[in-house]
């Protein structure tokens, strides 16, 4: 996979305006923006001041100081077995570092580990540690949440995930100038506020912040009295220091400039004039494919199917609002995710979806933020896809193979604002795994071939989120991963060779599930995983395995057969790389030993070209976990 670029964020700062409180530190008066959190954390023993009575709120915090704050704030206690060269047993923070090092980054130099306790704690590292401490590292997230930051590409690629999660959960925000400054240090006051946000979140009291004029509000829960009233209790702004009713119109509070139903500012959900009956022929032609995806629809219960059907009709008509009966938010979210999985052409439902609640807390409508150029994108996507599929002929196998190859030949793995959409790959030629998988599904269904997008992990331990496809061919199912099929190898002269990696094309469970672990459901922000009544069909057939069909697949180790295959391949096309795949790790290991360790490959090359007095060299790239090698040979007359 390629490098992922991201962006970073900063903390949420709350304005404190009460001046009648006792001052604990001389340099933190009661009107200081962080007075409340600094006082609270000091009283809890999480932070402390200096002998001269100061707190120095604007001083940078060190990694050791943050380790202490993190450990105490989240009640962490399990020590790691790591030994750091720069943290002695007498170091004041040694115990805290032993615990926090499971959540914070550390560094290796040769065989030795270092913590660098006196270095300044930087924003992106602190964010990662807090996300881990809150057990949010497997949360669903979108890199689009970072797009508003002008310095998004300054975020380290291995930190962008954690920053995105923190932003989407309202733990951090960007600077007023539109930056995040990911490598910048944090002040002691900022860390106090950040920890307060995190512990509030942990205690299921997630912070809601909304600006109204020059005031900043931190709201408690809101309670609907009727369709015309609600009560909110502001914890910060003195203008709202008592419970009182606020009138609102269509879920929008005029006084608070806020929509309590969906937690966003300046949005008024206005009901449609009159509910009109939906025509039977409701599909916008450019959104209609020969095969309509229903893989996830089948896993829904009857209630969720009703919601799904209404949203689908609205999307087919390019309408911004889907009117519903009264439904639970959990059913709505599951239905929405199923629709996302089944319809890659409805690209606008991937983000910016909001809901309207009634006074009983039930969802009564769903609103989609359809971009103004959506119709133009849909038409262009349909036209381009039609052009592609019209140029593809042959059997269904041939069609699937040519779609697989078209995506590989015409798509670059690159992060953009459309990276997760089918049209990002098909129209612009740039996408990541989600875009690859949705484009493959869209083109298959355009030709009438049943296909589904599947999400999951590519590692049993680490959370390597990925997307691929399940496709039906002649009443049997096969796995396809066009992202990993987009193979690239770095050659000796630092040039890249691109090729179609057929290890991930129409393969069985045996060859595919070695490094692909499907989710049995949807990843949600509120839960780790929503389990569905979903079972993936068994992919047992390997008759369309590319390597079997070209004679490059060996179920067991046979020296003579392998030697003959290598010689024939070199003779037919000396300039082409040799691909070879084994049915088990034992056959793969024996090949490595006999042909590479014992150097039999040199004799094979010389016999194939019919020259003994020749300088021969070879190189290879291997995927050991799938028992595959790609060998390049060269020779030169002496």
Quick recap:
The chain is α+β, with helices and mostly antiparallel strands and 638 residues long. The longest helix has 17 residues, at 374-390.
Structure description:
Strand 26 (553-554), helix 16 and strand 27 (578-582) form a beta-alpha-beta unit. The protein has a five-stranded antiparallel β-sheet, with no helix packed on it. Strands 22-19-18-17-23 form a five-stranded antiparallel β-sheet. Strands 26-27-29-28 form a four-stranded mixed β-sheet. The chain contains 18 helices and 29 strands. It has 638 residues and is α+β, with helices and mostly antiparallel strands. 30% of the residues lie in helices and 21% in strands. It folds into four domains: 10-61 and 120-202, no CATH class; 209-265, no CATH class; 271-543, no CATH class; 550-637. Helix 4 packs across helix 5 (160-168) and helix 10 packs antiparallel against helix 12.
């Amino acid at each position: 996979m390629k490098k992922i670029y991201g962006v970073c964020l900063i903390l949420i700062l709350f304005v404190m305006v009460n001046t009648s409180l006792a001052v604990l530190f001389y340099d933190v008066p009661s009107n200081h923006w962080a007075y409340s959190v600094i006082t609270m954390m000091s009283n809890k023993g999480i932070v402390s001041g200096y002998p001269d009575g100061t707190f120095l709120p604007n001083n940078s915090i060190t990694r050791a100081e943050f380790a202490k704050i993190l450990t105490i704030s989240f009640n962490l206690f399990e020590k790691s077995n790591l030994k750091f060269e720069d943290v002695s047993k007498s170091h004041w923070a040694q115990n805290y570092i032993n615990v926090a090092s499971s959540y914070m980054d550390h560094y290796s130099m040769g065989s030795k580990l270092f913590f660098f306790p006196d270095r300044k704690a930087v924003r992106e590292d602190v964010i990662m540690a807090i996300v881990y401490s809150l057990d949010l590292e497997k949360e669903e997230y979108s890199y689009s949440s970072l797009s508003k930051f002008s310095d998004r590409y300054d975020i380290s690629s291995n930190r962008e995930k954690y920053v995105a999660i923190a932003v989407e959960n309202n733990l951090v925000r960007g600077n007023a100038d539109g930056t995040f400054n990911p490598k910048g240090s944090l002040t002691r006051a900022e860390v106090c506020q950040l920890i307060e946000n995190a512990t509030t979140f942990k205690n299921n009291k997630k912070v809601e912040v909304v600006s109204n004029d020059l005031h900043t509000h931190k709201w408690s829960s809101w309670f609907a009295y009727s369709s015309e009233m609600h009560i909110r209790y502001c914890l910060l702004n003195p203008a709202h220091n008592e419970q009182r009713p606020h009138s609102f119109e269509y879920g929008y509070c005029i006084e608070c400039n806020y929509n309590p139903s969906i937690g966003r500012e300046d949005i008024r959900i206005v009901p449609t004039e009159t509910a009109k009956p939906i025509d039977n022929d409701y599909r916008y032609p450019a959104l209609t494919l020969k095969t309509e995806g229903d893989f996830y629809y089948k896993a829904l219960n009857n209630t969720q199917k009703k919601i799904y059907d209404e949203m689908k009709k609205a999307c087919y008509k390019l309408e911004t609002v889907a009117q519903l009966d009264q439904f639970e938010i959990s059913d709505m979210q599951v239905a929405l995710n199923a629709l996302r999985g089944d319809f890659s052409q409805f690209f606008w439902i991937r983000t910016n979806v909001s809901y309207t609640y009634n006074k009983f807390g039930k969802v009564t409508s769903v609103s989609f933020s359809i971009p103004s150029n959506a119709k133009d994108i849909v038409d262009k996507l349909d036209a381009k896809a039609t052009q592609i599929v019209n140029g593809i002929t042959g059997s269904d196998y041939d069609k699937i193979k040519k779609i697989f190859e078209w995506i590989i030949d015409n798509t670059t793995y690159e992060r953009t604002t459309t990276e997760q959409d089918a049209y990002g790959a098909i129209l612009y030629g740039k996408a990541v795994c989600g875009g690859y998988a949705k484009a493959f599904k869209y083109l298959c269904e355009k030709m009438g071939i049943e296909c589904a997008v599947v999400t999951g992990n590519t590692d049993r331990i680490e959370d390597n989120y990925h997307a691929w496809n399940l496709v039906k061919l002649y009443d049997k199912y096969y796995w396809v991963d066009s992202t990993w099929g987009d193979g690239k190898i770095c050659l000796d002269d630092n040039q890249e060779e691109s090729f179609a990696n057929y290890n991930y094309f129409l393969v069985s469970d045996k060859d595919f599930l070695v490094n692909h672990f499907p989710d049995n459901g949807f990843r949600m922000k509120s839960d780790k995983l929503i389990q569905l009544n979903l079972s993936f069909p068994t992919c047992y057939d390997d008759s369309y395995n590319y390597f079997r069909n070209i004679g490059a697949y060996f179920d067991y180790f046979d020296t003579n057969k392998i030697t003959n295959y290598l010689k024939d391949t070199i003779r037919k096309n000396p300039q082409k790389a040799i691909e070879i795949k084994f049915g088990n790790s034992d056959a793969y290991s024996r090949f490595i030993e006999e042909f590479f360790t014992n150097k039999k490959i040199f004799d094979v090359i010389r016999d194939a070209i019919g020259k003994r007095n020749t300088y021969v060299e070879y190189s290879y790239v291997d995927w050991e976990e799938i028992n595959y090698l790609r060998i390049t040979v060269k020779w030169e007359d002496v």
